[in-house]
Write a sequence for this structure.
């Protein structure tokens, strides 16, 4: 049984003048101990897709359709009360800016104790002991549980967030750009730590990022999102070696390769579309270098390229037909 | 971790925090003046009633009514020949007690309504804020008078009436701060770890609006003490208690003004003004200490 299976998840934001189609027909799956990278530019719906899993969305967000199964149990229709138990016990999150995800007026250790005691019947003392152990696991001196967030550096706070995320032994961890605010050295340490913990505990991980190199280093599979849809997904190596969607290709060439020849990183012309009224046909057609008439009028379908590697582009379908 | 050690640690931290708080606070001359005045009155309220008693001034067996200040009776006597200085000292206890108790009620109501309203928003917010608006716009003095008259003159009722009529401003302030705090990422994180609403409101939001509650308390206390005086002066106080308001009430109704008996009217009045002033000074000083933007950073 798969750890996580998401089918056709669709989440819209309701505004005064209509729905923002932030993510549409997202399908994902995750095995035990597997890491999947969710990449795409800002506002492509990565975070919305991930946070839809445990409905941690603003009030105006509506999950319109789709099923979410954790080990076969459908949680798409869970009530707020049920979700409270799913949150952190099944799915934990490492937030975007860990700097601000800690309450400034509460001791760091107490905030982890808080997470533990919501989900497990633990005495204050036992929870304190567990917290000290967690600190050791993320390589912070356990004496520092009594300090306040402002006494920690950015990297340490991010490690505290990781300690908090693994506190209740979740099955899945969502990392929402966990390293974005950190410098490269600290970023590498934090990623290394996450990687070790994930393997030790066999957790599934969804890593949201726009840094392709991070995905290359840590993820088994990658899903590329554009304008609220997954346009390509597959094993990381395959997607990086043979990117099949023009957007994926553009994204990869936009990242300079340190070993290869020097060239000016290419940017993708234009802006991401307004998701209040996404363009007809293929959503990428306005910015695509290989656009044809078909792309403007008809939405492409998902094409299987090889086992586990799929993309959504008209060009591919033509190729398949030619064969 | 050794818990005895942790306690000592806590104590050391508290001491450190208090020391740094004091080092900033004492730079503020307004705050210092306020603190000194308040301390004097606090000591007076605590120990005064044990040290003095209200005696009747008599010369050769004749009660000296409405007598100007003399050496034995520094503030003279009232219409019954009673010592006014002793009255002022003993009256401080009930005046301060009523003020502080009413403030506590007002702050609790204001804080709970403010946080709940700001946190839930929408319908809850709309309903609670309209109620708050009602309390804000109703002229509070007539409301207090009506309530006090209906409930009857007792100390408990006076406290209740003042508490119930003075929370609206606090609720507004706390609500607006809650609106800001609830959008902070750590509140989202708290929700993500599975916290319930009550837990988020009182474990995460309350401590972050606390500085505001603190600074506001001091200002509400000033208003509460003034209200007690007003109610008593207008005859809604408890006639069995000696308070500054009651003293003013009797002085006024027994014709102190027409006798030109300034020593009878002024002392309780000045006491009220001083206490209210001291709370206001402390309030401003706290605002400056707790709000780093208003603070000078060169020391």
């Amino acid at each position: 049984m798969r750890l996580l299976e998401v089918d056709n998840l669709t989440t819209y934001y309701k505004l005064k003048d209509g729905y923002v189609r932030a993510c549409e027909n997202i399908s994902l799956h995750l095995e035990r101990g597997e890491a999947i990278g969710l990449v795409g530019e800002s506002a492509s719906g990565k975070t919305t897709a991930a946070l839809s899993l445990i409905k941690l969305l603003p009030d105006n967000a509506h999950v319109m359709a789709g099923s979410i199964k954790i080990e076969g149990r459908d949680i798409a229709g869970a009530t707020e009360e049920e979700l409270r138990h799913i949150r952190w016990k099944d799915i934990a999150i490492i937030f975007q800016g860990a700097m601000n995800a800690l309450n400034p007026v509460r001791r760091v250790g107490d905030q982890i104790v808080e997470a533990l005691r919501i989900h497990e019947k633990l005495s204050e003392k036992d929870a304190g002991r567990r917290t000290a152990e967690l600190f050791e696991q993320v390589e912070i001196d356990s004496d520092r549980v009594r300090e306040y967030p402002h006494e920690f550096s950015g990297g340490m706070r991010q490690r505290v967030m990781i300690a908090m995320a693994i506190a209740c032994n979740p099955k899945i961890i969502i990392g929402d750009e966990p390293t974005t605010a950190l410098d490269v050295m600290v970023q590498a340490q934090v990623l290394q730590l996450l990687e070790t913990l994930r393997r030790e505990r066999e957790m599934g991980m969804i890593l949201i990022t726009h840094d392709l190199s991070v995905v290359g280093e840590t993820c088994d599979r990658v899903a590329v999102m554009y304008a609220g849809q997954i346009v390509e997904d597959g094993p990381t190596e395959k997607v990086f070696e043979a990117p099949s969607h023009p957007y994926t290709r553009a994204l990869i060439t936009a990242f300079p390769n340190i070993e290869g020849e020097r060239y000016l990183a290419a940017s993708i012309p234009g802006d991401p579309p307004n998701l209040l009224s996404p363009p007809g046909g293929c959503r990428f057609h306005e910015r695509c270098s290989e656009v044809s008439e078909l792309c403007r009028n008809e939405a492409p379908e998902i094409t299987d390229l090889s086992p586990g590697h799929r993309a959504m582009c008209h060009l591919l379908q033509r190729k398949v037909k030619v064969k | 971790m050794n818990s005895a050690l942790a306690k000592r640690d806590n104590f050391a931290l508290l001491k450190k925090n208090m020391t740094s708080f004091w080092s900033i606070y004492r730079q503020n001359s307004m705050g210092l003046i306020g603190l000194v005045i308040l301390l004097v009155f606090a000591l007076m309220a605590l120990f005064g009633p044990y040290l003095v008693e209200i005696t009747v001034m008599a010369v050769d067996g004749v009660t000296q009514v409405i007598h100007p200040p003399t050496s034995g009776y520094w503030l003279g006597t009232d219409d019954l020949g009673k010592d006014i200085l002793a009255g002022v000292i003993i009256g401080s206890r009930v005046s301060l007690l009523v003020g502080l108790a009413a403030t506590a009620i007002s702050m609790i109501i204001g804080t709970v309504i403010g946080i709940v309203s700001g946190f839930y928003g929408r319908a809850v917010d709309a309903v609670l804020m309209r109620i708050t608006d009602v309390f804000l716009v109703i002229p509070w003095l007539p409301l207090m008078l009506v309530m006090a008259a209906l409930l009857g003159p007792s100390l408990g009722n006076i406290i209740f009436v003042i508490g119930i009529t003075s929370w609206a401003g606090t609720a507004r302030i706390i609500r607006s701060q809650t609106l800001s705090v609830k959008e902070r990422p750590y509140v989202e994180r708290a929700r993500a770890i599975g916290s319930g609403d009550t837990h988020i409101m009182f474990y995460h939001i309350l401590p972050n609006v606390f500085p505001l509650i603190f600074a506001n308390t001091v200002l509400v206390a000033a208003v509460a003490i003034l209200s007690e005086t007003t109610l008593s002066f207008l005859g809604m106080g408890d006639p069995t208690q000696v308070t500054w308001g009651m003293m003013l009430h009797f002085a006024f109704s027994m014709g102190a003004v027409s006798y030109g008996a300034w020593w009878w009217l002024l002392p309780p009045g000045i006491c009220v003004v001083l206490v209210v002033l001291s709370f206001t000074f402390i309030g401003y000083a706290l605002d400056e200490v707790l709000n780093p933007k208003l603070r000078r950073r060169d020391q």
Notes: The interface with chain B takes residues 54, 56, 84-85, 87-89, 92-93, 95-97, 100-106, 114-115, 118-119, 125, 128, 132, 145-146, 164 of chain A (CB under 8 Å). The longest helix of chain A spans residues 184-201. The longest strand of chain A covers residues 18-30. Chain A has two domains: 4-90+170-322, 94-169.
